[in-house]
Design brief:
Number of helices: 6
Low-confidence stretches: none
Distance between the termini: 53 Å
Number of strands: 5
Family: Belongs to the bacterial CoaD family.
Cofactor: Mg(2+)
Mean pLDDT: 93
InterPro entries: Cyt_trans-like, PPAT, Rossmann-like_a/b/a_fold
Strand content: 15-25%
Radius of gyration: 16 Å
Largest sheet: 5 strands, parallel
Strand order of the largest sheet: 3-2-1-4-5
Pathway: Cofactor biosynthesis; coenzyme A biosynthesis; CoA from (R)-pantothenate: step 4/5
Function: Reversibly transfers an adenylyl group from ATP to 4'-phosphopantetheine, yielding dephospho-CoA (dPCoA) and pyrophosphate.
Shape: globular
Helix content: 40-55%
Length: 163
């Protein structure tokens, strides 16, 4: 079985992530959407919410599993018997950053990283941009899957309750 792990914080999942995941499904028998937990990082959405976003978005896709993990991604891949890491690239900056990680992961474990270029209409979307749109009450309906929208509105309302 060809299994890939697509790691990320998914804070929140974007249509850019969705694009890579959908296309990755054509290459692999199973794709594990793996939310990496970093206790030093402050997230906009809780782990429970981010897991729900992924589970709900791909509820009808039997080739997808949603999990969370801490520690090295390659260790998680070994635990899940995955020989591949799936990553999306939006621009040359992403490539340079991801290339160094891919080389390190292969040296540590032999696990290969497969890069897919984001579709041209989605290459501008990043989680950090989406969080800014949400933070300031902008329309993010073209940037995230539908399941995220009510939560995005809640974040904006809570941020503006005291103003």
């Amino acid at each position: 079985m060809r299994r890939a792990v697509f790691p990320g914080s998914f804070d929140p999942i974007t249509m850019g992530h969705y694009d890579i995941i959908e296309r990755g499904l054509t290459l692999f028998d199973e794709v594990i959407l793996a939310i990496g937990v970093n206790s030093d990082k402050k997230y906009m959405f809780s782990l429970k919410q981010r897991l729900r976003f992924l589970e709900e978005t791909f509820k009808d896709e039997p080739k997808i599993r949603v999990m969370s993990y801490s520690g090295l991604t390659v260790d998680f891949c070994k635990e899940q018997d995955s020989e591949f890491i799936l990553r999306g690239l939006r621009n040359p900056g992403d490539f340079e950053f991801e290339k160094a990680i891919a080389h390190t992961n292969r040296k540590l474990s032999g696990i290969e990283t497969i890069f897919l270029l984001t579709s041209s209409g989605k290459s501008y979307i990043s989680s950090s941009i989406v969080r800014e749109v949400i933070r300031y009450g902008g329309d993010c309906s073209d940037l995230v899957p539908e399941v995220v929208l009510p939560y995005a509105n809640d974040v904006w309302v809570k941020a503006n309750e005291d103003t």
